[in-house]
Specification:
The chain has one domain (25-172). The longest helix has 29 residues, at 53-81. The chain is mainly alpha-helical and 178 residues long. It contains seven helices and no strands. The chain has helices at 2-18, 24-34, 39-51, 53-81, 110-125, 127-146, 152-172.
Length: 178
């Protein structure tokens, strides 16, 4: 089963690497860099907290807390326990590649975990805002494959860990609706 999943993962990666989407070559690497170290999500949280009143602050805080749990889990347990090598970049055009390549292992994707954790945390507090941010999170996840730094399986595992982190935070600190 592991061989089948690994084969699918590599084929899906190559399909993305070999496909050209006009406009994505510039936008997705920039988006991926903006999400480095959670900066994109912290910026969105600060903006929402400053402009949106108490409900926005609660949603932003829940999103940031979820991101923190996801990031800690991925970087302490995930990357150290599964030492998957990053994809070979031969099939990825130079224009898409990140200027600074990640040095950590590939599995799971920390960017995907952070993106999905933040958006899920926000959505658990405020469904509309979560839905509004979901396309940005999905784009960050896809950007990690498009720029050649992750296999699709890395991204899916990171996303699952991120969603789990948001629900764990909700278990520890119930939402207003609960």
């Amino acid at each position: 089963m592991r061989h089948v999943l690994s084969t699918w993962d590599r084929k899906a990666f190559l399909a993305v690497a070999e496909r050209h989407w006009p406009g994505a070559d510039r936008a997705l690497p920039r988006l991926s860099r903006c999400a480095d170290h959670g900066l994109l999500w912290f910026g969105l949280a600060a903006g929402a907290a400053a402009a949106g009143g108490r409900p926005a602050r609660r949603a932003a805080l829940r999103g940031v807390a979820s991101l923190a749990v996801a990031s800690a889990t991925v970087n302490t347990l995930g990357k150290r326990s599964v030492r998957r090598v990053r994809p070979v970049m031969d099939a990825v055009p130079l224009v898409r590649r990140l200027a600074r390549q990640p040095v950590t292992t590939s599995f799971p994707s920390g960017h995907s975990a952070s993106a999905i954790a933040f958006v899920t945390g926000v959505a658990l507090e405020n469904r509309r805002w979560g839905l509004a941010l979901a396309p940005i999170a999905a784009s960050v996840c896809f950007s990690r494959i498009y720029t050649g730094v992750h296999y699709p399986g890395d991204v899916l595992a990171g996303a699952a860990l991120g969603a789990g982190a948001a629900f764990a935070v909700r278990g520890l600190a119930p939402t207003r609706a609960q």
